[in-house]
Amino acid sequence: MCCGTHVSNLSHLQVIKLLGTEKGKKNKTNLLFLAGNRVLKYAEKSYSTERSLVALLKTGPDDHVDAVDKLQKSVKLLQKTNLSLLRDMAVLITQNFKNDPQRANFFSLHKKEGDNEFMNIIANEINTEETLVFLTVGEEKGPGLFLLAGPSGRVADMGPRVLEMLQGKGAGKNGRFQGKANSLARRGEVEAFLQQHCKHHTSEEE
């Protein structure tokens, strides 16, 4: 009855609260319980958490599970809508670029809310045999993702330098170099480096 607490008298326990069971090793069942002062501390902590949830969810304790369930469903729906809008935006961005008669042979874009799919849609829509594409998503001065696409030889040459400036990890093949950036703080430097490379390449062709 002392539940392994080894007291000299059971009255020292004050109270024992059985919380439930969980599956243990070797077909055993673990019994979860609290005893003595830990029950009081647990009650105090639970009450404090409950009050915080009441303030956040604007509902009583009995409705907390339903309220969180509704929130999770709303978040999933918003995420789905957001992804759909990002895809549409990526297509519009590339159409706008391709319809510009004054377009250069270099395209650069940063989108905080973007993802890998957003960048890949843009890179797939633009003719990267003619245009060098540099895309980043994530925090402007913090971590994020990047994609460099263009003529395979040039991308292979420039990829490691871009990786170094973005303090990132990544790999490239077939005219694509992409990965994670620990910091996008030097994005402007990468852009300038790539633009300079494009100008140098264009003058060589002429």
Automatic annotation (TrEMBL):
GO BP field: tRNA aminoacylation
Molecular-function GO term, any one: aminoacyl-tRNA ligase activity
Gene3D superfamilies, per the entry: Threonyl-trna Synthetase, Chain A, domain 2
Protein name in the entry: Threonyl/alanyl tRNA synthetase SAD domain-containing protein
Annotated transmembrane regions: none
Location of the Threonyl/alanyl tRNA synthetase SAD domain: 1-29
Signal peptide: none
